[in-house]
Write a structure and sequence with these properties.
By secondary structure, the chain is α/β, with parallel strands linked by helices. The protein has one domain: 3-Layer(aba) Sandwich (Rossmann fold), CATH 3.40.50.300. It is built from 13 helices and eight strands. An eight-stranded mixed β-sheet has the order 3-4-2-5-1-6-7-8, with helices on both faces. The structure holds adenosine-5'-triphosphate and magnesium ion. Magnesium ion binds next to α2.
Length: about 300
């Protein structure tokens, strides 16, 4: 990891210019890759935060080192779901008040988290010096196996930046027609407006009543996307509409821990199994993430 950290530091070197053309993977001899996932949606309230939190826990339960970043700038959801009160966030790192290691919170759930921060609204306007500092601090995250970013809903600049920085975008929808059309709208933006058109898009259909319902909705979206956008979108899986999700929100205890045998938890485990079967893309990786998140061209 040290090697990768030095490579990244060099990449954002003194003159602030980046000569790297991407596809760096890791500079280390150790074959370590960080899987960077943005969990996102067109419509709000479809289950992103619950999925992000429980997906992170499920990954950790398979022995992975996982960090969950709350990228929802409007209302920081993650810490509420976990019943944690953060004292610092990314904005404090941007303002050089804290180091990245100071704002990473350990939880009893086997995952670490970075609390939501309005600081990202300023990322596009950082000075070179701030950018270098931030980039260096962000290298702390390269030791994680999985980075999960819970984005806000919709297509604001910050949400799109998070998605564009990631290797994989998991687009969450529910069976509701408005959620489906908004999911399509978001996929369209990712497919047509992103420079990173290689981003892997996967669908999660939440709050379904049967496996068939999830499959049917995913197929409908995938067919329309193929027809009008010619973009590859895969079906990752479904999550049942399950009352344990709501009760775990109220109790601030993720269902993956409090109700590990529930239908919702089983679905999450299944999804993690499917993700684990696919390898982390060789292109981009953590260095590309870093470059994009801080807006380096
Ligand atoms: N599988 C499910 N079964 C039952 N209820 C669910 C399920 N998933 C989510 N919910 C309910 O939907 C609510 C919204 O979920 P969540 O906060 O995760 O959505 P979100 O997409 O993160 O919302 P926002 O866009 O506001 O950030 C939860 O409080 C929960 O009550
Ligand atoms: Mg949320």
């Amino acid at each position: 990891m040290e090697d990768q950290a030095s490579e990244l530091r060099a990449m954002f070197g003194k003159n602030g210019s980046n000569t790297n053309t991407g596809n760096t993977g890791t500079a280390s001899n150790k074959p370590h890759k960080t899987r960077i996932i943005a969990v996102t949606s067109g419509k709000g309230g479809v289950g992103k935060s619950n999925i992000s939190v429980n997906l992170a826990i499920a990954f950790a339960q398979t022995g992975k080192k996982v960090i969950l970043i709350d990228g929802d700038l409007g209302m920081a959801n993650v810490n509420v779901l976990l019943g944690i009160t953060p004292k610092a966030n990314l904005l404090d790192v941007l303002n050089k008040k804290k180091k990245m290691s100071d704002i990473i919170l350990n939880t009893e759930l086997g995952i670490q988290i970075i609390a939501g921060a309005n600081g990202f609204s300023t990322i596009a306007n950082l000075t070179d010096e701030q950018r270098d500092f931030f980039a260096e601090e962000f290298t702390t995250l390269s030791s994680f196996d999985v980075i999960i970013i819970d984005t806000g809903a919709g297509v604001s600049e910050n949400v799109l930046r998070f998605i564009e920085s990631a290797d994989e975008a998991y687009v969450v929808t529910t069976p509701e027609p408005t959620a489906i059309t908004d999911a399509y709208g978001l996929i369209k933006i990712i497919a047509t407006e992103f420079s990173n058109s290689q981003i892997v898009m996967k669908l999660i259909v939440n709050k379904v009543h049967s496996a068939d319902e999830g499959k049917r909705i995913a197929e409908r979206i995938i067919t329309i996307v193929a027809q009008f956008l010619n973009a590859p979108v895969e079906y990752l899986g479904f999550i049942y509409d399950d009352s344990v999700v709501t009760s775990s929100v109220l109790r601030q205890k993720p269902f993956m821990v409090s109700q590990p045998n529930s239908k919702a938890a089983m679905c999450i485990k299944h999804i993690v199994g499917r993700i684990d079967k696919t390898s982390v893309k060789p292109t981009g990786g953590f260095s590309a993430f870093l470059r994009k998140i801080i807006g380096k061209k």
